Amino acid sequence: MNIVIGLGNPGNQYAETKHNVGFWVVDNLASRFVDVRFRFKWQADVAECRIGDTTVLLVKPQTYMNLSGEAVVQVVNFYKAIPQQDLLVVYDDMDFPVGNIKLRQQGSAGGHNGLKSIVARLGTEQFARVRVGIGRPLPGRSPMEHVLSPFSAEEHALMQGAVRTTADAIVFALEHGFAMAMNRFNGNS
């Protein structure tokens, strides 16, 4: 079982915010398949699909960003998944311009609270991740205000393309391997 986790916050008030880019990518993946339906389990919305020869579990934790690890560890434990080979996490990143993506096989959580929670609960930084750029806050605006605000109309158009590209990169990674996906998609945003 390959597990794709998209990070975000539950609730309509957060649906269009920058912090929900991970949810957008998972929803885009789900929309590519017939009869993919999310259900609530393990403190997350989950759905199964097949990508190539692989069964993939799509996961959107419903614990709020700072507690994402609570849902992730339940899914990983249930499937006896090995994070280094079975887990891929998609999340927003302020260190990249809006719409840029970067695939990494492992790494620190940086300042991302959702990733910090996952690393703390799993006890490892060794899992694949896709970082989707949301840009830096404007001067005088806190990081919290930035991630919980919507994109401008121009940025939203860029993000729609980035979400599709990120979903394409995940499909490619599942079919051809993560290293090949990094070679193909990193630096092409």
What keyword list fits this structure?
single chain, 189 residues, alpha/beta, Rossmann fold, seven-stranded mixed sheet, 7 helices
Structure description:
The structure is a single chain. With 189 residues, the protein is α/β, with parallel strands linked by helices. It has a single domain (2-185), classed as Peptidyl-tRNA hydrolase (Rossmann fold, 3-Layer(aba) Sandwich), CATH 3.40.50.1470. The chain has seven helices and seven strands. β3 and β4 (54-61) form a beta hairpin. The longest helix is centred in the last third of the chain and has 24 residues, at 153-176. It is globular and about 45 Å long. The model has no long low-confidence stretch (mean pLDDT 87).
Give me a quick take on this structure.
With 189 residues, this protein is α/β, with parallel strands linked by helices. It has helices at residues 21-31, 68-79, 83-86, 113-122, 143-147, 153-176, 178-185; strands spanning 2-6, 39-41, 44-51, 54-61, 87-93, 101-104, 128-133.
Rg result:
15 Å
Count of discrete domains: 1
* Overall form: globular
- Low-confidence spans: pLDDT under 50, at least 5 residues? none
Structural class: alpha/beta
Question: Helical proportion?
Answer: 25-40%
List the helices and strands and how they pair.
Layout: E1 2-6, H1 21-31, E2 39-41, E3 44-51, E4 54-61, H2 68-79, H3 83-86, E5 87-93, E6 101-104, H4 113-122, E7 128-133, H5 143-147, H6 153-176, H7 178-185
Parallel strand pairs: 1-4, 1-5, 5-7
Antiparallel strand pairs: 2-3, 3-4, 6-7
Helix pairs in contact: 1-6, 2-4, 6-7
